[in-house]
Recover the amino acids of this structure.
């Protein structure tokens, strides 16, 4: 399994996720990519149909209604009406919340990034 120290500025991309799935499930990366794509597609299709997708322990995907609202344009100062819309939402499950709450020790040699001053 791919184990990395998690940093605030690090994002796991699709290829890294596929590699991790392949190693964990003991399948090829090609099959893992197909499985990941099929999972994402199934979730999208369910949400588009108005269904809720619940993965016990991980969380729930659902569609929420966003009400119509008024905003002020920063460019013109004019009030603009934003129409009501539907948006995808994710609510984490208990196991995911607990996993995220675990503190991971930082590397001893990590340095804070500082901005270079222009001379």
């Amino acid at each position: 399994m791919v184990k990395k120290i998690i940093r605030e500025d690090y994002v796991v991309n699709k290829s890294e996720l596929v590699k991790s799935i392949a190693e964990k499930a003991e399948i090829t990366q090609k099959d893992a990519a197909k499985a990941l794509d099929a999972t994402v597609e199934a979730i999208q299709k369910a949400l588009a149909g108005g269904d809720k997708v619940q993965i016990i322990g991980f969380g729930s995907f659902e569609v929420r209604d966003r009400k119509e609202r008024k905003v002020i344009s920063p460019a013109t100062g004019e009030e603009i009406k934003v129409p009501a819309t539907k948006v995808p939402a994710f609510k984490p499950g208990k196991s995911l919340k607990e996993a995220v709450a675990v503190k991971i020790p930082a590397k001893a040699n990590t340095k804070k990034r500082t901005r270079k001053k222009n001379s």
